[in-house]
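The aim of this short unit is practical: by the end, you should be able to scan a pair of folded records and say something sensible about each. We start with the first protein, listed as its amino acid sequence and then its structure tokens.
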Amino acid sequence: MRTGPFDEPFQDSPAATPVAVAFISDRHYVVPTAVAIASLLCHRHRDTRYDIHVVAADPSVDLGILGAFDAPGAAIHLIEAPAGKYAGIPDSCHVTSAACLKFDLPHLLPHLDRVLYLDGDVLVREDLRALYETELGDCPAAAVRDIGLDDNALGIPDYFNAGVMLLNLKQLREEGTPAALEELRRTRSDLTYMDQDCSNLLFAGRVRLLPMRYNCMYSIFQRMRNQYPLERINRFFGTSYASLEALGQDAAILHLAGHDKPWLYFDSVSTPLWDRYRALSPARSLKLRRRSIRLRPIGTFARYLRRHGPAAAAGLARRKLLSLLHPPSPARG
């Protein structure tokens, strides 16, 4: 049973269990982070107290809206990261260098032994105390395998997604992990996925794997059904969902990965649910400039036209048209 919105009339349990959660936000992710926090608080059990730490990627990021939360059983702490520490690292696969601040969480949160890190593009659907209390042993982290990177270029088995991680901060500090991760990011030119490749390289074979429901990429599964049929998903994660809808309903954390973000597009798969949580957040009064995802190819073509000129754009359009009229024959084995 889902618990109600923030004004639910109950008092916290005197023995409420503290659950430390961390987000990182640059200027593009302030509103999404507010909505993610709203979803987290919406499903809080009365015996859970959330200590939420939000790291500002640079001094220009205005996190004031996050201070407007007035919810029982939660405290929000705004943390300013070292200015420009990762500014020289180029963006990768639509992920900015702000993601590298995950490396610094052990030092940014020196008073904590563990923290549950969440990307700003998540929606929480249940209380996360059980996840937070997962036994880590001598593992530096717990995370969910990434089905899209099972066959990854780095050859890492059990490659995990870094959008949801339970981090063993005490162990990471003792092992000098922050400096080792930063060195990997700055010295390896063959890394594609910003911070995620680094964490997978350094933690390989030492990660406690979590059930897929704690980092469920339902929107990607919906949008790319041909690439991710239910049979493949069940086989990869060792699950037995009867339908994609059942998989989505069971998710504890929905990760809205991919380009079709609901704050950018009014017709993405996840927009209706995201808007429901936005209505519970301080971001509900902010105006969003959203467009249609169905028109995204037109915008892509317009940018190509501006960058490469009419002749090149006409050639691209001709190739696209020919590929539609004469698709390649399927390979025969």
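Turning to the second protein, read its sequence before its tokens, just as you did above.
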Amino acid sequence: MKNLRSILPPMDTLATFEAAARLQSFTRAAGELHLTQSAVSRQIRLLEENLGTPLFHRAHRAVSLTPAGKSFQSTVALALNHIANAAVEHRGTSPETHLNLGADQSIAWLWLMPRLAGFREAYPEINVRLVASDNRSDFLSSETDIAIAFGPDDWPGFSSEELFGEEIFPVCSPAYLQTRDIQSNEDLLRCTLLELEDDTWGWVNWRMWLTSQGIHSPVETRSIQINNYPMVLQSARNDMGIALGWRHLVDEMIRAKELVAPVPCSMQTGNGYYLLIRKTVPVSPGAQAFRQWALKEQATHGSVIQTGDRSFHTHARSVQSDLQGSELPENPKEVHDGDRNPARGPGTRLTRKTGETEA
């Protein structure tokens, strides 16, 4: 772009022209701008010389716009109004009334957006800027006041507070369930499995979930892979197959009876969604307000999960580990300290429950 200063007329002449054109009077423009009538006249003449065309017809004690003046007035008035509105907005913005909020796309779409109106109702004075991205450098930028991020409880440079843990279970549409005889996890292998194709977050896939339930059969022959989780869930809602549902992300769809859980089994890991605030900067009032609201929102709205006519017990089966690259043993119910996989770190135990309560 060329140097605007070399192209634009003097800025004070534009403001003077806008007032004189709007009021159709140099005298009235002078009164509005707190200038003398002769000063207004000089600025209008300077502007006309800069543009090389007359903008006003001058008569005895009266002025009117020329055709060029009318055309120029509409452009100048619009531009100056834009600048004035932007200035007002920025003068009214302060850390107390602004919130830069970051999140990955899944939680932004599925958990935050259905609830964000509630936050705005509770804090109408806070202007929200939401950055939803699966690139952590985007939603955890230096401008972010607070973020909701998925992962383990290990966030160097951030104060972290768990919003909710990770629990995963199969979900499908009621119509799809009615067309399939699903009585156990093994029956899932005869269904179309909707797979999230994602290399960024280390999310649990079907192979990992089935392994956590003691099933080691191939699944790739009956699967559809999609690289966007909201689209995976939309495919499940459209009767295309069975997806893995993340508790709290699919709650609204289950409450609306758009999705159901076909088997009463779930998997838990050590991961979760965390509220993150950078340690190196003071906590903004907007971030503190959002933190309090999000924790209260999560604490006061539980999950209601059903599997057809059966109750869904969230702890029927659980795995307290990251299962990436690991297998459960066939016979023992637990992998004890002496059998640890070094990749999981010391002190981690991998558990598969059989539906009965273990002592």
